[in-house]
Predict the 3D structure of the following.
Amino acid sequence: MDLKELYRDVILDHNKRPRNFGRLDPADGQADGHNPLCGDRLSVFVKMDGDRIEDLKFEGKGCAISTASASLMTEAVKGKDKAAVGHLFEQVHNLLTQQDAPAAAELGKLAALQGVREFPSRVKCASLCWHTLNAALDRGASTVSTE
Amino acid sequence: MAAIAPKVQPETEVALDAERVRKDFPILQRSINGRPLVYLDSGASSQRPLPVLRAVEEYETHSHANVHRGVHALSQAATEAFEGARERVRRFINARSTKEIIFTRGTTEGINLVAQSYARPRFKPGDEILITALEHHANIVPWQMVCEQTGCTLKVAPIDRRGELVFDEYQKLLSPRTKLVAVAHVSNALGTVLPVKRIIDAAHAQGAVVLVDGAQAVPHSAVDVRALGCDFYVFSSHKIYGPTGIGVLYGRQELLDAMPPWQGGGDMILSVSFEKTTYNDLPYKFEAGTPNISGAVGMAAAMDYIEGLGIDKIAAHEQRLLQLATAELERIPGIEIIGKAAHKAAVLSFTMEGVHPHDLGTILDTEGIAVRTGHHCAQPVMTFFGIPATARASFGVYNTEKDVASLVAGLKKVREVFG
Protein backbone atom coordinates (compact mmCIF):
# COMPACT_ATOMS: atom_id res chain seq x y z
CA MET A 1 0.00 0.00 0.00
CA ASP A 2 1.43 3.31 -1.05
CA LEU A 3 0.46 6.37 0.94
CA LYS A 4 1.66 8.66 -1.83
CA GLU A 5 -0.92 7.01 -4.11
CA LEU A 6 -3.71 7.73 -1.63
CA TYR A 7 -2.68 11.20 -0.58
CA ARG A 8 -1.68 12.61 -3.97
CA ASP A 9 -0.88 16.31 -4.14
CA VAL A 10 -4.22 17.02 -5.82
CA ILE A 11 -6.05 15.36 -2.90
CA LEU A 12 -4.06 17.24 -0.28
CA ASP A 13 -4.58 20.50 -2.13
CA HIS A 14 -8.36 20.07 -2.43
CA ASN A 15 -8.53 19.03 1.23
CA LYS A 16 -6.72 22.15 2.33
CA ARG A 17 -8.50 24.49 -0.05
CA PRO A 18 -11.79 22.89 -0.99
CA ARG A 19 -13.39 24.47 -4.07
CA ASN A 20 -17.06 25.48 -4.14
CA PHE A 21 -17.21 25.25 -0.36
CA GLY A 22 -20.25 26.85 1.27
CA ARG A 23 -24.01 27.00 0.88
CA LEU A 24 -26.37 27.99 -1.90
CA ASP A 25 -29.39 29.89 -0.73
CA PRO A 26 -31.85 29.52 -2.32
CA ALA A 27 -31.05 26.12 -3.78
CA ASP A 28 -33.15 23.99 -6.12
CA GLY A 29 -31.96 20.85 -4.41
CA GLN A 30 -30.15 20.00 -1.18
CA ALA A 31 -29.15 16.77 0.56
CA ASP A 32 -27.16 15.79 3.64
CA GLY A 33 -24.79 12.84 3.58
CA HIS A 34 -23.58 10.97 6.61
CA ASN A 35 -20.96 8.28 7.09
CA PRO A 36 -21.73 6.89 10.54
CA LEU A 37 -18.50 4.89 10.61
CA CYS A 38 -16.25 7.93 10.84
CA GLY A 39 -18.73 10.70 11.58
CA ASP A 40 -18.25 12.45 8.22
CA ARG A 41 -21.11 14.78 7.34
CA LEU A 42 -21.56 16.89 4.27
CA SER A 43 -24.31 18.83 2.54
CA VAL A 44 -24.62 19.41 -1.20
CA PHE A 45 -26.60 22.30 -2.69
CA VAL A 46 -27.52 22.51 -6.38
CA LYS A 47 -28.95 25.25 -8.55
CA MET A 48 -30.50 23.89 -11.73
CA ASP A 49 -31.03 25.28 -15.17
CA GLY A 50 -33.57 22.78 -16.47
CA ASP A 51 -31.74 19.47 -16.44
CA ARG A 52 -28.34 21.08 -16.13
CA ILE A 53 -26.42 21.86 -12.91
CA GLU A 54 -25.90 25.58 -13.14
CA ASP A 55 -24.10 25.88 -9.81
CA LEU A 56 -23.38 23.73 -6.79
CA LYS A 57 -21.65 24.00 -3.45
CA PHE A 58 -20.88 21.70 -0.58
CA GLU A 59 -20.03 22.08 3.08
CA GLY A 60 -19.31 19.77 5.93
CA LYS A 61 -16.68 18.14 8.08
CA GLY A 62 -14.82 15.12 6.89
CA CYS A 63 -11.53 13.39 6.29
CA ALA A 64 -9.16 14.45 3.52
CA ILE A 65 -10.52 11.84 1.13
CA SER A 66 -14.15 12.86 1.58
CA THR A 67 -13.42 16.60 1.46
CA ALA A 68 -11.16 16.36 -1.60
CA SER A 69 -13.55 14.02 -3.37
CA ALA A 70 -16.43 16.46 -2.82
CA SER A 71 -14.35 19.40 -3.97
CA LEU A 72 -13.21 17.59 -7.13
CA MET A 73 -16.77 16.47 -7.78
CA THR A 74 -18.15 20.01 -7.68
CA GLU A 75 -15.59 21.10 -10.26
CA ALA A 76 -16.31 18.11 -12.49
CA VAL A 77 -20.12 18.28 -12.56
CA LYS A 78 -20.73 22.00 -12.78
CA GLY A 79 -22.48 22.72 -16.10
CA LYS A 80 -23.26 19.06 -16.78
CA ASP A 81 -26.75 17.62 -17.20
CA LYS A 82 -28.13 14.81 -15.07
CA ALA A 83 -27.35 12.07 -17.57
CA ALA A 84 -23.72 13.17 -17.83
CA VAL A 85 -23.45 13.33 -14.01
CA GLY A 86 -24.87 9.80 -13.77
CA HIS A 87 -22.34 8.57 -16.29
CA LEU A 88 -19.48 10.27 -14.46
CA PHE A 89 -20.57 8.76 -11.12
CA GLU A 90 -20.44 5.35 -12.74
CA GLN A 91 -16.89 6.02 -13.91
CA VAL A 92 -15.87 7.21 -10.44
CA HIS A 93 -17.48 4.16 -8.87
CA ASN A 94 -15.48 1.90 -11.18
CA LEU A 95 -12.33 3.81 -10.38
CA LEU A 96 -12.87 3.37 -6.63
CA THR A 97 -13.87 -0.29 -6.65
CA GLN A 98 -12.35 -2.10 -9.63
CA GLN A 99 -8.76 -3.18 -9.30
CA ASP A 100 -6.61 -2.73 -12.40
CA ALA A 101 -9.25 -0.75 -14.30
CA PRO A 102 -7.49 2.11 -16.09
CA ALA A 103 -8.88 5.55 -15.27
CA ALA A 104 -11.22 6.71 -18.02
CA ALA A 105 -9.92 9.80 -19.80
CA GLU A 106 -13.14 11.73 -19.13
CA LEU A 107 -12.47 11.55 -15.36
CA GLY A 108 -9.83 14.27 -15.64
CA LYS A 109 -8.66 15.38 -12.18
CA LEU A 110 -11.02 12.88 -10.53
CA ALA A 111 -8.49 10.20 -11.53
CA ALA A 112 -6.46 11.38 -8.51
CA LEU A 113 -8.86 9.25 -6.41
CA GLN A 114 -7.50 6.07 -7.97
CA GLY A 115 -5.30 5.30 -4.94
CA VAL A 116 -8.38 4.94 -2.72
CA ARG A 117 -9.15 1.46 -4.07
CA GLU A 118 -6.05 0.13 -2.31
CA PHE A 119 -7.71 1.14 0.97
CA PRO A 120 -11.12 -0.56 1.05
CA SER A 121 -12.08 1.03 4.38
CA ARG A 122 -11.84 4.44 2.70
CA VAL A 123 -13.98 3.87 -0.42
CA LYS A 124 -17.08 5.14 1.37
CA CYS A 125 -15.28 8.36 2.25
CA ALA A 126 -14.75 9.08 -1.44
CA SER A 127 -18.23 8.06 -2.59
CA LEU A 128 -20.28 9.86 0.10
CA CYS A 129 -20.40 13.15 -1.85
CA TRP A 130 -21.64 11.43 -5.01
CA HIS A 131 -24.48 9.67 -3.19
CA THR A 132 -25.36 12.98 -1.59
CA LEU A 133 -25.32 14.80 -4.94
CA ASN A 134 -27.59 12.12 -6.42
CA ALA A 135 -30.04 12.61 -3.56
CA ALA A 136 -29.97 16.38 -4.06
CA LEU A 137 -30.69 15.93 -7.78
CA ASP A 138 -33.35 13.25 -7.35
CA ARG A 139 -35.43 14.32 -4.47
CA GLY A 140 -34.80 17.95 -3.72
CA ALA A 141 -33.97 17.53 -0.06
CA SER A 142 -33.09 14.43 1.96
CA THR A 143 -30.46 12.64 3.98
CA VAL A 144 -28.38 9.74 2.74
CA SER A 145 -26.13 7.45 4.68
CA THR A 146 -23.29 5.24 3.55
CA GLU A 147 -24.47 2.46 5.86
CA MET B 1 25.31 -17.53 72.23
CA ALA B 2 22.74 -15.19 70.88
CA ALA B 3 20.50 -16.58 68.22
CA ILE B 4 21.18 -15.08 64.88
CA ALA B 5 18.11 -13.49 63.54
CA PRO B 6 17.24 -14.76 60.07
CA LYS B 7 17.96 -12.21 57.43
CA VAL B 8 14.75 -10.88 56.10
CA GLN B 9 14.69 -10.19 52.41
CA PRO B 10 13.21 -6.77 51.81
CA GLU B 11 10.09 -7.08 49.73
CA THR B 12 10.81 -5.52 46.42
CA GLU B 13 8.04 -4.76 44.01
CA VAL B 14 9.10 -6.31 40.74
CA ALA B 15 7.64 -4.45 37.79
CA LEU B 16 5.76 -6.23 35.06
CA ASP B 17 8.08 -7.64 32.40
CA ALA B 18 6.12 -6.66 29.31
CA GLU B 19 8.70 -8.15 26.93
CA ARG B 20 8.13 -11.52 28.55
CA VAL B 21 4.37 -11.02 28.52
CA ARG B 22 4.52 -10.33 24.77
CA LYS B 23 5.79 -13.87 24.17
CA ASP B 24 2.44 -15.15 25.49
CA PHE B 25 0.55 -13.40 22.68
CA PRO B 26 1.20 -15.12 19.34
CA ILE B 27 -0.60 -12.43 17.31
CA LEU B 28 1.99 -9.86 18.32
CA GLN B 29 4.56 -11.76 16.24
CA ARG B 30 2.81 -10.98 12.98
CA SER B 31 3.54 -8.06 10.76
CA ILE B 32 1.10 -5.58 9.25
CA ASN B 33 1.91 -3.93 5.92
CA GLY B 34 5.44 -5.23 6.23
CA ARG B 35 5.96 -3.70 9.68
CA PRO B 36 5.90 -5.29 13.12
CA LEU B 37 2.41 -4.94 14.60
CA VAL B 38 2.06 -2.16 17.17
CA TYR B 39 -1.28 -2.93 18.78
CA LEU B 40 -2.75 0.11 20.52
CA ASP B 41 -6.43 -0.83 20.33
CA SER B 42 -6.95 -2.98 23.42
CA GLY B 43 -9.72 -0.61 24.49
CA ALA B 44 -11.75 -1.93 21.56
CA SER B 45 -10.65 -5.53 22.02
CA SER B 46 -7.57 -7.00 23.62
CA GLN B 47 -5.58 -9.91 22.22
CA ARG B 48 -5.51 -13.43 23.70
CA PRO B 49 -2.57 -15.06 25.46
CA LEU B 50 -1.61 -18.71 24.93
CA PRO B 51 -3.11 -19.91 28.24
CA VAL B 52 -6.52 -18.64 27.06
CA LEU B 53 -6.14 -20.14 23.58
CA ARG B 54 -5.04 -23.43 25.13
CA ALA B 55 -7.85 -23.54 27.67
CA VAL B 56 -10.41 -23.13 24.88
CA GLU B 57 -8.67 -25.73 22.71
CA GLU B 58 -8.36 -28.14 25.64
CA TYR B 59 -12.05 -27.79 26.43
CA GLU B 60 -13.12 -28.19 22.79
CA THR B 61 -10.74 -31.12 22.26
CA HIS B 62 -11.50 -33.15 25.35
CA SER B 63 -14.50 -31.96 27.34
CA HIS B 64 -17.27 -30.58 25.16
CA ALA B 65 -20.91 -31.62 25.43
CA ASN B 66 -23.99 -29.67 26.45
CA VAL B 67 -24.16 -28.44 30.03
CA HIS B 68 -26.70 -29.22 32.76
CA ARG B 69 -28.14 -32.03 30.66
CA GLY B 70 -26.84 -35.53 30.47
CA VAL B 71 -25.68 -38.12 32.88
CA HIS B 72 -22.85 -39.00 30.54
CA ALA B 73 -19.23 -38.21 31.34
CA LEU B 74 -18.71 -35.44 28.80
CA SER B 75 -21.82 -33.53 29.82
CA GLN B 76 -20.60 -33.65 33.39
CA ALA B 77 -17.12 -32.52 32.34
CA ALA B 78 -18.60 -29.61 30.37
CA THR B 79 -20.87 -28.65 33.28
CA GLU B 80 -17.92 -28.73 35.66
CA ALA B 81 -15.86 -26.53 33.34
CA PHE B 82 -18.72 -24.07 32.86
CA GLU B 83 -19.68 -23.85 36.53
CA GLY B 84 -16.00 -23.74 37.45
CA ALA B 85 -15.73 -20.66 35.25
CA ARG B 86 -18.67 -19.12 37.11
CA GLU B 87 -16.91 -19.63 40.43
CA ARG B 88 -13.76 -18.12 38.90
CA VAL B 89 -15.73 -15.02 37.93
CA ARG B 90 -17.26 -14.81 41.41
CA ARG B 91 -13.80 -14.71 42.96
CA PHE B 92 -12.57 -12.23 40.33
CA ILE B 93 -15.09 -9.58 41.37
CA ASN B 94 -15.63 -10.83 44.94
CA ALA B 95 -19.36 -11.50 44.61
CA ARG B 96 -21.11 -13.24 47.48
CA SER B 97 -22.43 -16.17 45.50
CA THR B 98 -22.27 -17.75 42.05
CA LYS B 99 -26.03 -17.15 41.93
CA GLU B 100 -25.14 -13.52 41.34
CA ILE B 101 -23.01 -14.29 38.26
CA ILE B 102 -25.03 -14.34 35.02
CA PHE B 103 -23.19 -15.20 31.82
CA THR B 104 -24.11 -12.89 28.95
CA ARG B 105 -22.80 -12.22 25.45
CA GLY B 106 -21.05 -9.15 26.78
CA THR B 107 -21.46 -5.78 28.43
CA THR B 108 -24.16 -4.63 26.02
CA GLU B 109 -26.33 -7.67 26.66
CA GLY B 110 -25.90 -7.28 30.42
CA ILE B 111 -27.19 -3.71 30.29
CA ASN B 112 -30.10 -4.68 28.07
CA LEU B 113 -31.01 -7.50 30.43
CA VAL B 114 -31.21 -5.12 33.39
CA ALA B 115 -33.08 -2.54 31.29
CA GLN B 116 -35.70 -5.02 30.14
CA SER B 117 -35.99 -7.24 33.20
CA TYR B 118 -35.39 -4.82 36.07
CA ALA B 119 -36.37 -1.38 34.76
CA ARG B 120 -39.13 -2.02 32.25
CA PRO B 121 -41.58 -3.86 34.53
CA ARG B 122 -41.11 -1.38 37.38
CA PHE B 123 -40.70 2.12 35.99
CA LYS B 124 -43.59 4.52 35.45
CA PRO B 125 -44.08 7.99 34.04
CA GLY B 126 -42.39 10.43 36.43
CA ASP B 127 -39.62 7.97 37.31
CA GLU B 128 -36.11 8.92 36.22
CA ILE B 129 -33.06 7.09 34.97
CA LEU B 130 -29.83 9.02 35.47
CA ILE B 131 -26.74 8.49 33.32
CA THR B 132 -23.68 10.65 32.64
CA ALA B 133 -22.61 12.60 29.55
CA LEU B 134 -19.64 10.31 28.90
CA GLU B 135 -21.48 7.02 28.45
CA HIS B 136 -20.93 4.57 25.60
CA HIS B 137 -23.98 4.16 23.35
CA ALA B 138 -24.56 0.78 25.03
CA ASN B 139 -25.26 2.61 28.29
CA ILE B 140 -27.55 5.18 26.63
CA VAL B 141 -29.74 3.42 24.08
CA PRO B 142 -31.11 0.58 26.30
CA TRP B 143 -32.33 3.24 28.76
CA GLN B 144 -33.87 5.34 25.98
CA MET B 145 -35.76 2.21 24.96
CA VAL B 146 -37.03 1.75 28.52
CA CYS B 147 -38.12 5.40 28.55
CA GLU B 148 -40.10 4.83 25.35
CA GLN B 149 -41.62 1.65 26.75
CA THR B 150 -42.58 2.97 30.19
CA GLY B 151 -42.85 6.75 29.90
CA CYS B 152 -40.06 7.34 32.41
CA THR B 153 -37.46 10.06 31.80
CA LEU B 154 -33.74 9.95 31.01
CA LYS B 155 -31.56 12.48 32.82
CA VAL B 156 -27.92 13.17 32.00
CA ALA B 157 -25.30 14.41 34.48
CA PRO B 158 -22.79 16.73 32.77
CA ILE B 159 -19.03 16.48 32.36
CA ASP B 160 -16.49 19.31 32.28
CA ARG B 161 -13.82 20.17 29.69
CA ARG B 162 -11.34 17.82 31.34
CA GLY B 163 -13.81 14.98 30.85
CA GLU B 164 -14.68 14.60 34.51
CA LEU B 165 -18.15 14.17 35.92
CA VAL B 166 -19.43 17.38 37.53
CA PHE B 167 -20.26 15.71 40.81
CA ASP B 168 -22.30 18.58 42.25
CA GLU B 169 -24.54 18.58 39.19
CA TYR B 170 -24.86 14.81 39.43
CA GLN B 171 -25.93 15.14 43.03
CA LYS B 172 -28.46 17.85 42.17
CA LEU B 173 -30.05 15.59 39.57
CA LEU B 174 -30.55 12.84 42.15
CA SER B 175 -33.97 12.84 43.79
CA PRO B 176 -36.57 10.39 45.05
CA ARG B 177 -37.74 10.23 41.40
CA THR B 178 -34.36 8.68 40.44
CA LYS B 179 -34.99 4.95 40.26
CA LEU B 180 -31.77 3.88 38.58
CA VAL B 181 -28.32 5.31 37.96
CA ALA B 182 -26.30 3.79 35.13
CA VAL B 183 -22.70 4.89 34.93
CA ALA B 184 -19.41 3.91 33.31
CA HIS B 185 -16.61 2.93 35.68
CA VAL B 186 -14.09 4.12 33.07
CA SER B 187 -14.92 6.19 29.96
CA ASN B 188 -14.00 4.36 26.76
CA ALA B 189 -13.62 7.57 24.77
CA LEU B 190 -11.73 9.69 27.32
CA GLY B 191 -10.16 7.28 29.81
CA THR B 192 -11.72 9.08 32.79
CA VAL B 193 -11.99 6.90 35.89
CA LEU B 194 -15.24 7.86 37.57
CA PRO B 195 -15.64 8.08 41.35
CA VAL B 196 -18.07 5.17 41.31
CA LYS B 197 -18.04 4.58 45.06
CA ARG B 198 -19.20 8.17 45.70
CA ILE B 199 -21.67 7.94 42.83
CA ILE B 200 -23.16 4.75 44.26
CA ASP B 201 -23.36 6.06 47.83
CA ALA B 202 -25.11 9.24 46.69
CA ALA B 203 -27.58 7.26 44.58
CA HIS B 204 -28.35 4.82 47.39
CA ALA B 205 -29.04 7.75 49.72
CA GLN B 206 -31.93 8.61 47.37
CA GLY B 207 -33.07 5.00 47.09
CA ALA B 208 -31.88 4.45 43.50
CA VAL B 209 -30.21 1.26 42.36
CA VAL B 210 -26.93 1.56 40.45
CA LEU B 211 -25.61 -0.26 37.41
CA VAL B 212 -21.90 0.14 36.70
CA ASP B 213 -20.61 -0.44 33.16
CA GLY B 214 -17.22 -1.92 33.92
CA ALA B 215 -16.16 -2.84 30.38
CA GLN B 216 -13.17 -0.47 30.41
CA ALA B 217 -12.39 -0.77 34.12
CA VAL B 218 -11.93 -4.50 34.61
CA PRO B 219 -8.80 -4.69 32.38
CA HIS B 220 -7.03 -2.00 34.39
CA SER B 221 -7.98 -2.47 38.03
CA ALA B 222 -9.16 -4.98 40.60
CA VAL B 223 -12.92 -4.72 41.01
CA ASP B 224 -14.67 -5.69 44.25
CA VAL B 225 -18.43 -5.43 43.76
CA ARG B 226 -19.12 -5.78 47.47
CA ALA B 227 -16.68 -3.02 48.43
CA LEU B 228 -18.24 -0.80 45.75
CA GLY B 229 -21.73 -1.68 46.91
CA CYS B 230 -23.13 -1.55 43.38
CA ASP B 231 -26.37 -3.32 42.53
CA PHE B 232 -25.37 -4.40 39.02
CA TYR B 233 -21.93 -4.61 37.41
CA VAL B 234 -21.40 -5.59 33.78
CA PHE B 235 -18.31 -6.33 31.70
CA SER B 236 -17.00 -8.26 28.68
CA SER B 237 -14.42 -11.02 28.45
CA HIS B 238 -12.75 -9.79 25.27
CA LYS B 239 -11.42 -6.65 26.90
CA ILE B 240 -9.63 -8.71 29.58
CA TYR B 241 -7.73 -10.97 27.17
CA GLY B 242 -10.53 -13.55 26.95
CA PRO B 243 -12.72 -14.64 24.02
CA THR B 244 -15.42 -12.53 22.38
CA GLY B 245 -19.12 -13.34 22.76
CA ILE B 246 -19.07 -13.84 26.52
CA GLY B 247 -19.42 -11.44 29.42
CA VAL B 248 -20.81 -11.11 32.88
CA LEU B 249 -23.74 -9.50 34.61
CA TYR B 250 -23.29 -9.33 38.35
CA GLY B 251 -26.47 -8.51 40.24
CA ARG B 252 -27.30 -8.49 43.93
CA GLN B 253 -29.19 -11.68 44.60
CA GLU B 254 -32.29 -10.09 46.08
CA LEU B 255 -32.68 -7.93 42.98
CA LEU B 256 -32.11 -10.80 40.56
CA ASP B 257 -34.53 -12.99 42.52
CA ALA B 258 -37.28 -10.41 42.10
CA MET B 259 -36.69 -9.97 38.36
CA PRO B 260 -38.61 -11.94 35.73
CA PRO B 261 -36.61 -13.94 33.16
CA TRP B 262 -35.52 -11.94 30.11
CA GLN B 263 -35.54 -14.67 27.48
CA GLY B 264 -37.41 -17.94 27.53
CA GLY B 265 -36.08 -21.32 26.48
CA GLY B 266 -34.12 -24.29 27.70
CA ASP B 267 -32.03 -24.21 30.88
CA MET B 268 -34.03 -21.33 32.37
CA ILE B 269 -36.94 -23.55 33.39
CA LEU B 270 -37.61 -26.20 36.04
CA SER B 271 -40.71 -27.64 34.43
CA VAL B 272 -42.80 -26.85 31.41
CA SER B 273 -46.35 -27.80 30.58
CA PHE B 274 -48.75 -26.03 28.26
CA GLU B 275 -50.59 -24.77 31.31
CA LYS B 276 -47.73 -23.61 33.48
CA THR B 277 -43.97 -23.20 33.36
CA THR B 278 -41.84 -22.95 36.47
CA TYR B 279 -38.67 -20.93 36.07
CA ASN B 280 -35.31 -22.18 37.17
CA ASP B 281 -33.35 -20.72 40.08
CA LEU B 282 -30.54 -18.21 39.83
CA PRO B 283 -28.39 -17.88 37.87
CA TYR B 284 -29.97 -20.19 35.27
CA LYS B 285 -33.20 -18.20 35.17
CA PHE B 286 -31.35 -15.65 33.04
CA GLU B 287 -29.45 -18.08 30.83
CA ALA B 288 -31.90 -19.39 28.26
CA GLY B 289 -30.47 -21.69 25.62
CA THR B 290 -27.13 -23.44 25.31
CA PRO B 291 -24.53 -20.97 26.56
CA ASN B 292 -21.10 -20.03 25.23
CA ILE B 293 -19.32 -22.77 27.20
CA SER B 294 -15.86 -22.51 25.67
CA GLY B 295 -16.12 -18.74 25.97
CA ALA B 296 -16.72 -19.03 29.70
CA VAL B 297 -13.77 -21.42 29.99
CA GLY B 298 -11.56 -19.00 28.07
CA MET B 299 -12.69 -16.04 30.16
CA ALA B 300 -11.85 -17.94 33.36
CA ALA B 301 -8.38 -18.70 31.96
CA ALA B 302 -7.97 -14.99 31.16
CA MET B 303 -8.80 -14.13 34.78
CA ASP B 304 -6.20 -16.66 35.97
CA TYR B 305 -3.74 -15.09 33.56
CA ILE B 306 -4.12 -11.48 34.61
CA GLU B 307 -4.30 -12.31 38.32
CA GLY B 308 -1.16 -14.39 37.82
CA LEU B 309 0.62 -11.33 36.46
CA GLY B 310 -0.94 -9.18 39.18
CA ILE B 311 -3.62 -6.64 38.34
CA ASP B 312 -1.85 -3.97 40.39
CA LYS B 313 1.35 -4.55 38.43
CA ILE B 314 -0.58 -4.38 35.16
CA ALA B 315 -2.16 -1.11 36.28
CA ALA B 316 1.20 0.37 37.29
CA HIS B 317 2.75 -0.68 33.98
CA GLU B 318 -0.10 0.83 31.96
CA GLN B 319 0.02 4.05 33.98
CA ARG B 320 3.72 4.42 33.17
CA LEU B 321 2.93 4.02 29.47
CA LEU B 322 0.01 6.45 29.68
CA GLN B 323 2.16 9.10 31.34
CA LEU B 324 4.99 8.59 28.86
CA ALA B 325 2.66 8.72 25.86
CA THR B 326 0.82 11.76 27.22
CA ALA B 327 4.09 13.64 27.72
CA GLU B 328 5.40 12.64 24.27
CA LEU B 329 2.19 13.57 22.44
CA GLU B 330 1.93 16.91 24.20
CA ARG B 331 5.31 17.78 22.67
CA ILE B 332 4.06 17.24 19.09
CA PRO B 333 2.75 20.51 17.61
CA GLY B 334 -0.94 20.45 16.75
CA ILE B 335 -1.83 17.45 18.94
CA GLU B 336 -4.61 18.02 21.41
CA ILE B 337 -5.35 15.41 24.03
CA ILE B 338 -9.09 14.97 24.56
CA GLY B 339 -9.83 13.92 28.13
CA LYS B 340 -7.53 15.28 30.81
CA ALA B 341 -9.10 13.87 33.94
CA ALA B 342 -6.89 13.69 37.01
CA HIS B 343 -7.55 9.97 37.26
CA LYS B 344 -7.37 8.13 33.93
CA ALA B 345 -7.05 4.58 32.71
CA ALA B 346 -4.60 3.77 29.90
CA VAL B 347 -6.71 5.34 27.18
CA LEU B 348 -5.35 8.30 25.21
CA SER B 349 -7.76 10.13 22.90
CA PHE B 350 -6.40 12.92 20.75
CA THR B 351 -6.79 15.03 17.63
CA MET B 352 -4.19 16.51 15.28
CA GLU B 353 -4.77 19.97 13.87
CA GLY B 354 -5.59 19.92 10.16
CA VAL B 355 -5.77 16.12 9.97
CA HIS B 356 -8.97 14.15 10.29
CA PRO B 357 -8.57 11.16 12.66
CA HIS B 358 -9.59 8.84 9.83
CA ASP B 359 -6.63 9.94 7.71
CA LEU B 360 -4.38 9.70 10.72
CA GLY B 361 -5.55 6.14 11.36
CA THR B 362 -4.90 5.11 7.75
CA ILE B 363 -1.37 6.50 7.79
CA LEU B 364 -0.56 4.84 11.13
CA ASP B 365 -1.94 1.58 9.74
CA THR B 366 0.54 1.66 6.86
CA GLU B 367 3.20 1.80 9.60
CA GLY B 368 1.71 -1.28 11.28
CA ILE B 369 0.20 0.76 14.13
CA ALA B 370 -3.39 -0.08 15.12
CA VAL B 371 -5.33 2.73 16.80
CA ARG B 372 -9.05 3.32 16.94
CA THR B 373 -10.41 6.32 15.07
CA GLY B 374 -13.96 7.59 15.08
CA HIS B 375 -16.56 8.53 17.64
CA HIS B 376 -15.92 5.44 19.81
CA CYS B 377 -19.65 4.76 20.11
CA ALA B 378 -19.85 7.88 22.26
CA GLN B 379 -21.25 10.51 19.90
CA PRO B 380 -22.54 12.75 22.73
CA VAL B 381 -18.96 12.97 24.05
CA MET B 382 -17.72 14.04 20.60
CA THR B 383 -20.52 16.60 20.36
CA PHE B 384 -19.60 17.97 23.79
CA PHE B 385 -16.01 18.58 22.67
CA GLY B 386 -17.20 19.93 19.29
CA ILE B 387 -15.29 17.35 17.24
CA PRO B 388 -16.52 14.63 14.86
CA ALA B 389 -14.03 12.04 16.02
CA THR B 390 -10.74 11.37 17.76
CA ALA B 391 -7.87 8.95 17.39
CA ARG B 392 -7.48 6.74 20.43
CA ALA B 393 -4.45 4.79 21.55
CA SER B 394 -5.24 2.36 24.34
CA PHE B 395 -2.63 0.34 26.19
CA GLY B 396 -2.66 -3.20 27.46
CA VAL B 397 -0.46 -5.55 29.40
CA TYR B 398 1.72 -6.29 26.36
CA ASN B 399 2.51 -2.73 25.29
CA THR B 400 5.97 -1.29 25.84
CA GLU B 401 7.86 1.98 25.68
CA LYS B 402 8.84 0.90 22.17
CA ASP B 403 5.17 0.99 21.13
CA VAL B 404 4.91 4.55 22.44
CA ALA B 405 8.01 5.48 20.42
CA SER B 406 6.47 3.89 17.31
CA LEU B 407 3.28 5.90 17.85
CA VAL B 408 5.24 9.12 18.15
CA ALA B 409 7.26 8.31 14.99
CA GLY B 410 4.02 7.41 13.19
CA LEU B 411 2.44 10.74 14.14
CA LYS B 412 5.47 12.58 12.78
CA LYS B 413 4.94 10.70 9.54
CA VAL B 414 1.31 11.88 9.50
CA ARG B 415 2.56 15.43 9.89
CA GLU B 416 4.95 14.90 6.97
CA VAL B 417 2.20 13.63 4.67
CA PHE B 418 -0.16 16.47 5.51
CA GLY B 419 2.51 19.15 5.68
